[in-house]
Amino acid sequence: MMAKSGRSRQREERRQTGAQPRAAKRAVLVQERAKRAAGAQLLRDVLVVGGAILVVMAGLWVGLGTWPPMVVVESGSMMHGRDSSVGVIDTGDLTLVKSVTTRSDVRTWVSAIPRVDYTYTSQGGSVQEGTKTTGDGYSTYSNYGDVIIYRKNNMGGTPVIHRALLWVEPTSDPQCLESGAADLPELDLTCITTITFHKATQVHSDIRIDVASVLARPGSGAGFITKGDNNNNQVPALSDQQSLFDDHQQHLLPVRPSWIVGRAVGELPAFGLLRLFVTGQLGSAGAPPSSQRFLAITIVLLVGVPLAVDIYSGRRARKKLEQVRAPRRKPAKGADDAEE
Q: Minimal CA–CA distance to 271: which of 38, 39, 71?
């Protein structure tokens, strides 16, 4: 019995000695397979994300008719306060852009507002008052009418994203041609030199437009008068055509439909802040606090949660690998006889 038990121990030792290299080889194979699987999974993830982005961008291009289909808002000229608000264009928002080909593609503030009181000056200097009550209340971004993205005097550079207030055109009245007066067809007014809208918006109490002087500039013609919802603190507030300049320091002219990149039709709040931070294009006013918080929370949810899942999955895979590496030991046969 003793000799038999001794031979059993020797066989068991030889078996275990041979099992250790085999277990090590299996562990190496498992580790290599895990690395290849992880690399393949990463490649698949990159391809899926890249493909999804391409599909979304292509869909936006086809649906909106513009490229790129979105723009980053670089200033706070459309904000309705010091902080960001839901349904308002704020600094750092990504705004979707839909193509515009004709004047009828744009609804102006004047055509949409349900009621507005105004004072206008006609040729000869007479001042009169009027009220418009025919608007249907159409609104975008918490104000009436459309917001358009346009090139300043049809030049390059960063486009302007402001609201279309009204359409103006040189007067068709023969008696007013030499005076440079304007017609405002949306209000059925002719031979107008200035107009002031009273209690116009929640940001501005009055908006004054010197339409005759705007149309008197060289190269001027029929087009949209535009303004940011919050782009100056003057009282009364002035339009872009009276307060902004192009790259050659010339006053802006009325915006022709051919100068319009598109009209704003939606937004992704705060996502454009990433680009503004990286490129240093954020203005002196900085990013709205609420937009910064929203962006931080979104990044944590989009990046932090998947990362935590990957870390957890990696730990489980390492535990399994350690279990495979550990040699399996079985009790030797005849061990009880040897002890006896």
A: 71
**130 vs 59, which has greater pLDDT?**
130
User: Domain residue spans in the chain?
Assistant: 1-64, 98-267
When pLDDT is cut at 50, 70 and 90, the band that residue 263 belongs to is very high
Residue of higher predicted confidence among 233 and 207: 207
Residue whose C-alpha is closest to residue 148's, from 262, 61, 240: 262
- Chain center to CA of 85: 14
Question: Please, are residues 27 and 328 in contact by the beta-carbon 8 Å criterion?
Answer: no
R_g (Cα) of the chain, nearest Å: 35
Predicted confidence band of residue 260 (pLDDT cuts 50, 70, 90): very high
Residues in the chain: 340
Whether residue 312 is predicted with pLDDT greater than 50 in this model: the reply is yes
Q: Looking at per-residue confidence, does 243 or 174 come out higher?
A: 243
Distance, in Å, from the CA atom of 191 to the CA atom of 181, rounded to the nearest integer, reads: 5
Overall average pLDDT of the 57-66 stretch:
76
Residue 161 · residue 89 · CB < 8 Å: yes
**Residue 318 token pair:** 């390492």
Q: CA dist 86 to 58, 90, 294, Å?
A: 27, 9, 11
Mean pLDDT for all residues in the chain: 83
Helical pair 305-325 and 2-64, crossing angle rounded to 10 deg: 160
Q: Which of 130, 106, 136 is nearest to 116 (CA)?
A: 130
Q: Cβ distance 208 to 217 under 8 Å?
A: no
Beta strand pairing call for 237-238 and 206-209: parallel
Question: What's the CA gap between 280 and 77, in Å, rounded?
Answer: 18
Strand, helix or coil for residue 314: helix
| CA 188 – CA 169 distance, rounded (Å) | 12
Looking up tokens 């009276």 gives: 242
Q: Which two tokens stand for residue 49?
A: 């994300």
Alpha-carbon gap, residue 193 to 121, rounded angstroms: 6
Q: How far apart are CA 338 and CA 332, in angstroms?
A: 10
The per-residue pLDDT for 2 is 47
Q: What was the pLDDT predicted at 14?
A: 56
